Amino acid sequence: MIADDNRQTLRQRLYRQLYAGAWVGEGLSPVNRLVCLLVIVAATVAVLDTEVTLRARFEDTFFAIELALFIFFALEYIARVYAAGEDPRYRGLGGRLKYIVSFWALIDLLAIIPFLVTLGVSDAYVLRLMRLLRLMRLARLGRFSDAIDAVLVAVGERRYELILSLLAAVFLLVGSSSVLYVVEAEAQPEAFGSIPRALWWSIATLTTVGYGDVTPVTVLGKLFAGITAIAGIGLIAMPTGVLAAAFSDALQRKRAGSGQSRADAAADTRETKERDYD
Length: 278
What we know:
Four Helix Bundle (Hemerythrin (Met), subunit A)
């Protein structure tokens, strides 16, 4: 019985330290602050490790750092799975399995897998891919950011407007590619000989990138290219405005909720002091 109580106490402590919403103090818990610091260190090492000259000179150092980070993140992952039982949604074996396949748990797992995969692997492509996945550790910082939550809320609230914008973009991409295929295919069969080929030009134009590697040469092609470019400016601005407004609304609601919570806490404190005084 005592052992069970000790395990329960340990799980509660881990939960408060590892889950941002469970920490009662200001900001992040000490453990989560350490996690953020090591995530930044891991991303920096992953970037520097892609430089051949640095990797050749500090290969042993990079490996030692990666090994230490792997051990830390593996222990942290196990602790998170264990402590997740404090949340009613993840209690029991079924709850733990549900947590393991949740979004943030999968992101945590990506912090561990690349190191294991690269052990004994010599294929250059696999090694490059694993180095890229190591940078996914930066995504772990999202769990500690209120702004990320606000963005997710904003996207959810404006999903229908965003879907409409996406459909409009697809329609404009296919439409402009089809027209350029009709008017430019004879003059430039390599660039506009089919709608899929013309689609590259449409994407570069509508996103206002404008590489200039493929351009219309006919009068009709240039005329329609101008119309497409102008339409692209409005098309990019539409979802940007929708998201900006939703993001602002979500942040204001979150700040208002935090302010109300602080006011309620202060009122409770005053009432407690008054009762003690009486």
